[in-house]
């Protein structure tokens, strides 16, 4: 079999000028690359692979890989080219370009330079997947949603026939209709269009002013653009209703399972980075809050986690309070962690062919492989039309063998995941390590079927497999047809956790830097139950955790599944409280004439207690739960004097509630959220908190 190798070269035009941004697609291996500003590229390929070179305004070139590692390509201009491109700024005067008596050679030179000017030189103008913001290849071109990368901070203003336009509209204009394109920069842009044009202006004129005086909707209609809905039609999210306020007199106990998942946050980040509106049901506030790490102290007793509470002001409802509950898992040194028995269960069906699916998935799992020790072992099971084992259990020090097996995976076939789950768990149980870390790692876009009624059958299957003592980690990939609802069911019902991998940096965070917390459980079935003191609390509500709520009687029932806590992991939960005596529009009227359920309170007792909180957990290989109890003092700190953790976690929850369009928050100001987050931004060596602040700042344009 031919060995894969690096193919490189230079792509140029007919005058031997290098072309930046040319897309190179390996049609055999389904991988791609692009040329840099010097026209250089490199791509992995084998002998016999077909490379396709494409660039707007040029005919596609096809080249089979032979013996040479160097393939230089000359692109030929197609018939569909712009008549004229005018670039204004950087030392050239407007009048210089208003004179149409150029020599033909000068015009050709400007056309050659147009690609560079329209790609990177003017901030925010990009060429991606053979699609540029300035022109589309043909009238029949269907622009995929994933093709345009919008960077709100760097995007220029677009004007077509005097009408403001968006990048996706510009990309749909037929090049044959374009008369000229002007790129205004610096003072040439701001002097005409104001400060909003600081990133440049792309001005397009069509031959017959086809789009003059059209509204945005009319422009969409004429260009045959279907607006992107708030929830992409092929993505699937479970709908839920946010927690309401409850009275401690009628609902004295609030019980829920911890949640260490953070898939919702990275998925939201993907939407915002793509300039899309976030689907309401994609927002799970607790997963947003728990994406970030907080500075809780290590446990100092026999229990595997410490308990930390804090009370402060509610930033969105000024008369209310916020109770923060933080758990800190014990940090176990890597050398002391038990041996791992891992089974990679990888979706290689046809839906996984996109670059942000199987190719990203393989690179992600390589990060995890690099964390393995000699006492660890890995098996690889794949599924598409059928399930099969591509790598039997292999020692963690045979990294090349494991990585080679990953590299050989290719996508194709249907999405029958049931057989894959069966084989993966069978492999894990046959190689079970007593006292070890036995885990199936499912990597997929969630677009799979189990039985005739997928979700219910899948839930039954994964609950049955949970009894084997094998844990489950779900890694979600891709967009467009992403099935978040299925991934969440698997993680919730399978002694598991769940992450959405939107890029290689997130893979490095979850599978590399936080490997111990993600892959090694130190406590399972962790439940929290809190009883609020009605002398101090009129009403309360749990923020988030809607899908993790339990009945009061479930707390002591060891048969009820709950969340797992990993080594050095943190879990944070927030309650909003309406104190006694405070008037609030969110209070639900409580009956005061009940005969049998009237609650009597002793005014001389518990006046200094806000609540009593209880925890239950099991050891990773245990079946009987252990209980912990702690009281919370009725003492509140002003928000400006509260801990950085309180400020930042409240800001994240606030943003999540805003994205969900919560009816229970009075203040929805992005500026106020950013201000609070900045006040709480500390211990941010990786920059995730600063990234969150940028997301809030840019989200104002889309939400």
From TrEMBL:
Signal peptide: none annotated. Residues 341-519 form the VWFA domain. Coiled coil: none annotated. SMART domains: VWA. It comes from the Bacteria. CDD domains: vWA_subgroup. This is VWA domain-containing protein. It comes from Flavobacterium chungbukense.
